């Protein structure tokens, strides 16, 4: 594995992701959830809640956070960190927009 | 024990109601009380009619004394009895229905009548006044047809009526005789700001306008002004002032001028006859605001209970307008004169105007618009005649500015002296509230209202009372603990549901904007709730918000702990067949489904299905005739049945057939929380109907309808709604009950919790005893089903929400290295 090179991969267009929703990327064994906020920012987290591995991509997106569908932990889209009294961090990935193209960094 | 005296009260408004409260407190056993009320109802808070008109409150919210209060105090209340004669010699009164009551002491509280301008056409149908609940009901009825309303009179009442009618969707014009609005309470500058704000809300204002006539053939069609302007109108509301009702007293030979003449002990010219409220004249004045009326109530109660020292003392009263979002406050005398000075602060951008009128270094009047936080502080200094020369320079900036204290809104309240008046309506001062909080361990607004009456009338001092609770209790006071829907708003579910209807909010962004949500797009608690309320209230207009649905309702399957899903097809009434079972078996094999389970609701659950397989699974199930079982929905789930008369030797009715009918009629409907039903064919109850949300027990003579059971976190047997004779009646009653719950339940509130909150009797009354109400619930349910009964599975098999079920991209292994 090459640890130095940053590898930006185009994964689709902004239109592919519903506003206040998420889509999944399958990267080998790893599932990555790509989120789109109300103001069209995009974020990528591993699709695993730090609590009990719930699929964050299936949660409700609100104000820069996603609420896990299994036990309602609220996870920051930007940092992957659990909000409030809960503790834990989901792995996050750099993601950026080039025009309407969504690029993910692996 | 001495024999009780007889007290007769004519009128059941707020003043006599308050008088009786004081009397029962001071001398609970002194009198047998009889009340004659010309209105056919109990005592309610007349000041709050405007929020009822605008839809922010319901009539039930503004009742002061419910029927129980009268029973508790042994009061004989004649509702809808107008008194037509007082015989002072015989000491009796007679009602129009011929009821005669003898008295030792009599209290006349006949209130006032709205003044009707005697222009031609004033008696046409469609011309209303604004005085009691009947007027509000009449206005609401007229508002249903939308149309145009003209309000004559730009004073407090007229403007509140105009704002309420506008909220109800009418096109509203206000006609006012004077050059600026509310000229008795506001100076021209504040009147102008108010006019601007009302016009911004779409209310047309015509000042310096005099009504010439009201035109129409059989009912009002338009109104013509002196200058020839004609304004079309389907409704005309006259709110130009009130006249004391003194006719009855005059006929009885009592002294009456403009009102019934009373002394400062509230006694009329006959010492055994008292009068109070808007019908009286005291020192040449008549009164319309609530604070002096409540003072009269206290004085009269003192005299009736033997305390002859209490006297009515004239005090100034502050005024506020009860239109949501408009803040104005005025008190005292604010006319210009040579010996007066004024201090004015204007902030055009923020829409703030503040004016203080000083005489001899004392505040004698104030008008505040936009920011009214310092109103009570100014008013307190006005009443105490405080010399303000020391702080004159910074006075207008308010209390917080004095001494440079931090700009904390509660600091102003903290700095108020103990004898500062907080609640003007009820004359409650700060010290009375804080000591009640401490002494009685009060923890919330309702407690304070119950114990001190503060903020229990017009409610405009609610914010101050809450701040006092905060100051007194510190962190122990959490106003939003029970009330707020979530941290995005301070409003409760009840408030939000009411306001969605009242303001006709039809999208989630509209709700968040209008109700001032604190977050940009809500949270996982409020969004699904709002989505449900909108689906329920506007079934034909609202477009379901996919992203505000919990994942189960978005993909129409139940998420499991490992991220796979379970699928439950509908089996009507729990009946199935070999064909259906074979189709299920084939699906299980084809998709390698790891677990198959029979559920508690008599359905078959296939567990462990991968999300991407869902559409294909549904496609195969659909071919076999299955639709979604909605086992994931906050909506109708299952109707469990027993075999009834088809097979069972004890069965009394066709419970299976009835269960299937109910399920086929009600499937697809969304409800506040899941709704599980059952039909048992006899009282042996094999379908366990008596722990369901709604259950039917068949008996020989017909059907018992049960509801509000629970068998989850709570265990609770059902309550009986009532019994009916036919399957058709079961359908109508059950559907009406479900609709009532749909319309009133809070999101995630199961039917048993809702029923506890609303009261079983109220539900029985509306569903069993009121055929009109039942029918209207039924019809609204039927209407909403037109839009709800679409099988979500077949929709998705045809490609709806396709993106949900496939990854956005699958990266090649080399890209991931």
UniProtKB/TrEMBL annotation, chain A:
Superkingdom of origin: Bacteria
Keywords: 2Fe-2S, Iron, Iron-sulfur, Metal-binding, Nitrate assimilation, Oxidoreductase
CDD domains given in the database record: Rieske_NirD_small_Bacillus
TM stretches of this protein: none
InterPro entries: Rieske-like_NirD, Rieske_2Fe-2S, Rieske_2Fe-2S_sf
PROSITE patterns named in the record: RIESKE
Domain Rieske: 8-104
Protein name as it appears in the record: Nitrite reductase small subunit NirD
Species for this entry: Ahrensia kielensis
Top-level taxonomy: Bacteria, Pseudomonadati, Pseudomonadota, Alphaproteobacteria, Hyphomicrobiales
TrEMBL record, chain B:
UniProt domain BFD-like [2Fe-2S]-binding: residue ranges: 422-469, 485-534
UniProt-listed InterPro entries: BFD-like_2Fe2S-bd_dom, BFD-like_2Fe2S-bd_dom_sf, FAD/NAD-bd_sf, FAD/NAD-binding_dom, FAD/NAD-linked_Rdtase_dimer_sf, NasD-like, NiRdtase/SiRdtase_haem-b_fer, Nit/Sulf_reduc_fer-like_dom_sf
Essential cofactor(s): [4Fe-4S] cluster; [2Fe-2S] cluster; FAD; siroheme
CDD domains (UniProt xref): NirB_Fer2_BFD-like_1, NirB_Fer2_BFD-like_2
Residue stretches making up the Nitrite/sulphite reductase 4Fe-4S domain: 633-769
Domain Nitrite/Sulfite reductase ferredoxin-like: 560-623
Pathway: Nitrogen metabolism; nitrate reduction (assimilation)
Sequence similarity: Belongs to the nitrite and sulfite reductase 4Fe-4S domain family.
Name of the protein in question: Nitrite reductase large subunit NirB
Gene name, Swiss-Prot/TrEMBL: nirB
């Amino acid at each position: 594995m090459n640890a130095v090179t940053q590898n930006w991969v185009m994964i689709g267009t902004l239109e592919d992701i519903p506003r206040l929703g998420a889509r999944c990327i399958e990267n080998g064994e790893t599932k990555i959830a790509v989120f789109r906020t109300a103001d069209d920012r995009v974020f990528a987290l591993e699709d695993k809640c730090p609590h009990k591995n719930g699929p964050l991509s299936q949660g409700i997106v609100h104000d820069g956070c996603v609420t896990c569908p299994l036990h309602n932990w609220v996870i920051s889209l930007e940092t992957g960190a659990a909000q409030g009294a809960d503790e834990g961090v989901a792995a996050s990935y750099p993601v950026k927009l080039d025009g309407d193209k969504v690029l993910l960094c692996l | 024990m001495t024999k009780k005296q007889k007290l007769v009260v004519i009128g059941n408004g707020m003043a006599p109601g308050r008088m009786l409260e004081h009397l029962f407190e001071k001398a609970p056993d002194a009198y047998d009380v009889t009340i004659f009320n010309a209105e056919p109802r109990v005592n309610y808070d007349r000041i709050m009619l405007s929020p009822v008109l605008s839809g922010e409150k319901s009539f039930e919210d503004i009742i002061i004394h419910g029927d129980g209060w009268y029973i508790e105090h042994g009061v004989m209340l004649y509702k809808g009895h107008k008194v037509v004669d007082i015989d002072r010699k015989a000491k009796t009164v007679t009602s129009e229905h011929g009821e005669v009551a003898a008295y030792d002491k009599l209290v006349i509280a006949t209130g006032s009548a709205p003044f009707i301008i005697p222009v031609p056409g004033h008696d046409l149908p469609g011309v209303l006044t604004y005085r009691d609940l009947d007027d509000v009901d009449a206005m609401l009825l007229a508002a249903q047809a939308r149309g145009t309303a003209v309000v004559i009179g730009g004073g407090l009442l007229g403007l509140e009526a105009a704002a309420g009618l506008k909220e109800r969707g009418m096109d509203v014009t206000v006609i006012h005789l004077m050059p600026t609005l509310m000229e008795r309470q506001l100076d021209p500058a504040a009147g102008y700001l108010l006019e601007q704000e009302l016009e911004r809300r779409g209310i047309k204002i015509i000042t310096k306008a005099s009504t010439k006539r009201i035109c129409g053939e059989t009912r009002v069609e338009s109104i013509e002004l002196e200058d020839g302007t004609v304004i079309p109108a389907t409704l005309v509301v006259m709110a130009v002032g009130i006249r004391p009702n003194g006719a009855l007293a005059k006929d009885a030979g009592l002294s009456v001028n403009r009102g019934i003449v009373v002394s400062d002990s509230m006694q009329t010219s006959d010492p055994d006859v008292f009068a109070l409220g808007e019908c009286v004249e005291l020192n040449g004045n008549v009164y319309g605001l609530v604070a002096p009326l409540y003072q009269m109530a206290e004085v009269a109660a003192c005299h009736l209970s033997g305390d002859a020292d209490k006297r009515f003392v004239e005090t100034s009263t502050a005024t506020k307008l009860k239109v949501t979002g408009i803040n104005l406050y005025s008190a005292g005398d604010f006319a210009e004169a040579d010996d007066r000075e004024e201090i004015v602060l204007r902030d055009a951008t923020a829409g703030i105007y503040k004016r203080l009128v000083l005489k001899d270094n004392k505040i004698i009047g104030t008008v505040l618009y936009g920011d009214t936080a310092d109103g009570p502080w100014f008013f307190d200094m006005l009443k105490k005649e405080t010399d303000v020369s020391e702080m004159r320079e910074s006075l207008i900036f308010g209390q917080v500015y004095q001494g440079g204290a931090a700009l904390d809104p509660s600091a102003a309240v903290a700095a108020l002296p103990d004898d500062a008046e907080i609640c003007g309506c009820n004359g409650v001062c700060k010290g009375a509230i804080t000591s009640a909080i401490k002494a009685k361990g009060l923890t919330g607004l309702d407690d304070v209202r119950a114990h001190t009456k503060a903020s229990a009338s017009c409610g405009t001092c609610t914010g101050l009372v809450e701040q006092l609770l905060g100051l007194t209790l510190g962190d122990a006071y959490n106003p939003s603990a029970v009330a707020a829907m979530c941290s995005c708003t301070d409003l409760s579910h009840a408030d939000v549901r009411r306001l969605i209807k009242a303001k006709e909010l039809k999208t989630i962004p509209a709700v968040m904007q209008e109700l001032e949500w604190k977050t940009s797009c809500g949270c996982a608690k409020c969004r699904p709730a709002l989505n449900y309320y909108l689906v329920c209230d506007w079934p034909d207009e609202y477009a379901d918000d996919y992203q505000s649905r919990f994942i189960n309702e978005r993909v129409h399957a139940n998420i499991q702990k490992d991220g796979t899903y379970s699928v439950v097809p509908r089996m009507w009434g729990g009946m199935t067949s070999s064909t259906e079972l074979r189709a299920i078996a084939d699906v299980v094999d084809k998709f390698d489904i790891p677990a198959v389970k029979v559920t508690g609701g008599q359905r078959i659950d296939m567990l462990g299905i991968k999300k991407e397989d869902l559409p294909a699974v549904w496609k195969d199930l659909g071919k076999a005739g299955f639709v979604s079982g909605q086992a994931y929905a906050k909506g109708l789930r299952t109707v469990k049945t027993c075999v009834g008369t088809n097979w069972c030797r004890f069965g009394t009715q066709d419970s299976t057939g009835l269960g299937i009918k109910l399920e086929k009629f009600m499937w697809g409907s969304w409800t506040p929380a899941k709704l599980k039903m059952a039909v048992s064919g006899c009282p042996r109850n094999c379908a366990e109907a008596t722990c369901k949300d709604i259950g039917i027990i068949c008996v020989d003579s017909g059907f018992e309808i049960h509801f509000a059971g629970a068998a989850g976190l709570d265990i609770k047997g059902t309550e009986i709604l009532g019994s009916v004779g036919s399957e058709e009646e079961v359908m109508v009653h059950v559907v009406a009950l479900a609709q009532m719950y749909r319309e009133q339940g809070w999101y995630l509130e199961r039917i048993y919790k809702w029923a506890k909150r609303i009261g079983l009797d109220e539900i029985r009354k509306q569903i069993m005893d009121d055929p009109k109400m039942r029918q209207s619930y039924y019809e609204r349910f039927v209407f909403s089903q037109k839009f709800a009964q679409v099988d979500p599975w077949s929709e998705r098999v045809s490609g709806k929400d396709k993106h949900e079920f496939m990854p956005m991209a699958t990266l090649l292994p080399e890209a991931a290295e």
